[in-house]
Amino acid sequence: MDLRRLMATAIVSVTGLGLAGVAVSSLSSGVPGLPGGIIVGAVLVLGGAFAIAGPMLYRSTVTSDHLLRVAGWNTLGVVVTVAVLALVGTFQAADGGRVAAPLLSGAVIVGVSAFAHVLIGVNDVRRIRARTVADQRRKAAVVNRFVRHDLRHAAQMLIGYSDRIPNGSGGDDAEEATDGGDGANTDVAAKIVSIARQLNETQSRVKVIDELLEGDPDTRASVVVSDSIEERRSSLTDGHPDASLRIDSDGTPAVRGGDHVVTAVVELVENALEHGGDPVDVRVRERRVGDEVEIRVVDDGDGFPADERALINDDEAETQLRHSSGMGLWLSKWVIEFYGGSLTIGTNERGDSEATVRLPVAAGSKSS
């Protein structure tokens, strides 16, 4: 059972039950005239609508976070209106005035205010969902472009290498393909294996993005990024035997996130190893800054291109004619933002490439 969802819908239903209770109490004590009957009827309708809306919202497809948002608007409408009515009533009483049936009169005003605020909340949620859908479409377009590019490039490479494999016909092509002996065939096989690994990496990245688009961030999970990077040191430097990978941490607490957060930073480290100097020198620096953990990935390369910086740092929008050259940076950006963090890339004063990640400190972590 989702307690957040239950609490949100309970707030809406309790509002309705409270209004209905006031109306029934007024009926039992007698309602003077037609105007009083209309007011009681209005309060009953509003109360019934709220009471029924609670269970309906619980069974709806609206997310728990959005339901809490609607319930928050409902609560705001009730609290603010009751406070205003209390002040007005106090002022009138002090001035010798009197309000007929104050409870019933206040109930109809509170009910209308709560109803209006629920409508505001629903519109607010629709706006957020529309923005989320637009953002998901933008991400899907970026992923689609990268996947199409990778698949097309891989297909072209495989076709090219397949032409170098002997076809057994004994013709000139076969003789030409085997001129290099076993060494040539081994080279072709290695190239094909490399392409297969690249396609597997693309598939893994798409899987992570799919999980982000479909799921909610698990705010209970936590990870110490520097420790996870250290555990993967050998696999990271496997293809870079001359590389230097230095990992420094001030003993910072864990960040809010999990394996996907580590994946995001690993992408940045792999990018640094790929585009750093010769031999490459990569530094990963981790420290706490307030309620966040800052992770800097620095390499001694030529710095990020200006177009790349503008896109990843949100200075410009991604288009078909103007786009980032790598899927890894986008993956890092989306994962980090998914967990409430931020990613910026740039070039430091020494001309080195520098990616800066900021993520919220995990709940319960203490400053070092």
Structural overview:
The protein folds into three domains: 3-135, no CATH class; 163-214; 222-360, 2-Layer Sandwich (Heat Shock Protein 90), CATH 3.30.565.10. With 368 residues, the chain is α+β, with helices and mostly antiparallel strands. The protein contains eleven helices and seven strands. It has a five-stranded mixed β-sheet. It has a two-stranded antiparallel sheet with strand order 1-3. It has helices spanning 3-29, 33-58, 64-94, 102-162, 172-177, 181-214, 225-231, 233-237, 259-275, 306-312, 327-338; strands spanning 222-223, 244-249, 255-256, 281-289, 292-299, 342-347, 353-360.
Biggest β-sheet description:
5 strands, mixed
Distance between the termini: 37 Å
Per the CATH scheme, the topology name of the largest domain is: Heat Shock Protein 90
User: Within the largest sheet, what's the order of strands?
Assistant: 2-4-5-7-6
Mean pLDDT: 78
Order of helices and strands: HHHHHHEHHEEHEEHHEE
Oligomer: single chain
